[in-house]
Write a structure and sequence with these properties.
With 433 residues, the protein is of the alpha/beta class. Helices cover 32% and strands 24% of the residues. The strands form five sheets. A nine-stranded mixed sheet has the order 4-3-5-6-7-8-9-15-14, sandwiched between helices. A five-stranded antiparallel sheet has the order 11-10-12-13-16. Strands 21-20-19-22 form a four-stranded mixed sheet. Helix 2 packs across helix 3, helix 8 packs parallel to helix 9 and helix 10 packs across helix 12.
Length: 433
């Protein structure tokens, strides 16, 4: 099903014409209202009236997360506070929070895009949507909430945490759609089993999962253990929150990015040079309808590629390949670029291994070391030592075959790696900074 047929199937030529018009408008708006952008444009020698086509986008400077911190809290707002109806912010665990403000029209647009996203994912009026994204400053909970109400679903605003109660509510209320992080959906299945429940017998049929990178293999694991169709959704608070892009249930292959509101680009994360469709690199997004805090060429740090080929669902908006990691989460170990999702893909192919792991990076002398801690299931853990040694050697070999680096494998008991009720932590990097 399609929520907004007019815009979701807009012919490419018309869609790109609309993008170019909106790009010109937003360039003029931020130049006139946000001193930061005026300074950046002037520094780059670009006047907004020179932005006439989508190709001109590359003439504009990038915006970084640090720019938001440097202008904390309201320095990038393009509207006065009396026109801002809601404020969200990041956790600020690595510095000052990044603060975003929404006008009434921004909220309406966000709600519309979440309605499109839920419909594309297969949710509809009559569904009971169990929303386990966090409410509060984090954009996930409220973003999903209003979109679900827009399509006429019944929303259970659970937020995160209190897993036993989550299970009770899901079972008793007959939830049919689950929204949370991929790792938390697996944790729910595991916690249900500990309570003597089989989550696959609940009425859940779809999981709309996001807020952290996850692999195709992990999707298979979730679909089997939770008994749902697992759909990937993408968003980030600096741009909008959830609903920037979503997979359609027809293809489950790439996330449609709503191009009447966003212009995506892919760049080389090192050089900053633009890359053509199909090549992997860092995603850069320009918002072309946001009023409260428009973003010009925002470097998301997420690694993906643009899929330009038409989708079987009939939507004309291009797709983003599943995020394989973040450029700032990328580990460089002995000169090799390593994303946690690559190691996850190896582990998910090996029988006896659970989808819970931790990467410990350290330095011995001048040499970087990588230890991969992997949980094994109960049956494997009770096997003979030589069986476990064989399993370790196999994991080590397959990681070396894929990445070209050696690592230590440490098999650990079931349920010893910490679970998360939000985004899972996969890496501990102990190397001196």
């Amino acid at each position: 099903m399609i929520w907004n047929d007019e815009f979701e199937r807009l012919p490419r030529e018309a869609l790109e014409s609309l993008q170019a018009k909106r790009l010109q408008q937003v360039a003029e708006r931020v130049y006139a209202t946000v001193p930061f952008y005026k300074q950046q444009f002037d520094k780059a020698g670009v006047k907004p009236e020179k932005i006439k086509s989508l190709d001109d986008l590359r003439r504009l400077p990038f915006t970084l997360k640090q720019d938001m911190r440097d202008n904390y809290p309201y320095g990038l707002f393009a509207k006065p506070l009396d026109q801002i109806v809601r404020i969200h912010a990041s956790s600020g665990t690595t510095g000052k929070p990044t603060v975003v403000g929404y006008t009434k029209r921004d909220i309406e647009n966000w709600t519309e895009l979440m309605a499109r996203s839920f419909t594309a994912a297969g949710a509809n009026r009559g569904d009971i949507l169990h929303n386990a994204y966090g409410y509060g400053l984090f954009t996930g909970g409220l973003g999903a909430h209003y979109g679900a109400e827009k399509i006429g679903a019944s929303v259970i605003p659970m937020s995160g945490g209190n897993t036993k109660k989550q299970l009770m509510i899901m079972q008793d209320f007959g939830s049919t759609v689950l929204t949370c992080t991929p790792s938390y959906s697996l944790y729910l299945a595991e916690a249900a089993a500990e309570e003597g429940l089989d989550i696959r017998k609940f009425k859940l049929r779809i999981g709309i999962l996001g807020a952290e990178p996850w692999s195709e293999k992990l999707r298979n694991e979730i679909e089997e253990k939770v008994g749902i169709k697992a759909i990937d959704i993408y968003g980030l608070s600096e741009i909008l929150g959830p609903g920037v892009g979503v997979e359609c249930i027809e293809a489950q292959s790439g996330l449609h990015i709503w191009e009447d509101h966003f212009i995506p680009e892919i760049i080389d994360p090192i050089s900053g040079e633009s890359l053509p469709d199909g090549e992997q690199g860092e995603l850069v997004i320009t918002t072309i309808t946001k009023e409260g805090i428009p973003m010009i060429r925002y470097r998301t740090r997420d690694i993906t590629r643009i899929i330009a080929e038409p989708c079987i669902c009939g939507r004309t908006h291009r797709r983003l390949e599943r995020m394989c990691g973040r450029s700032d989460d990328m580990l460089i170990i002995r000169g090799v670029n390593v994303y946690p999702s690559q190691i996850e893909s190896v582990l998910m192919d090996i029988e006896g291994v659970e989808p819970h792991y931790m990467l410990i990076v350290d330095r011995e002398g001048t040499l970087d070391t990588l230890e991969v801690q992997v949980e094994v299931n109960e049956q494997t853990f009770s096997d003979e030592i030589k069986v476990l040694q064989g399993l370790s050697r196999r994991i080590e070999k397959e990681i070396k075959d894929l990445l070209g680096i050696s690592c230590r494998i440490r098999l650990v008991e079931p349920k010893t790696i910490a679970r998360s009720e939000g985004k899972a932590q996969r890496v501990i990097d102990n190397r001196p900074k």
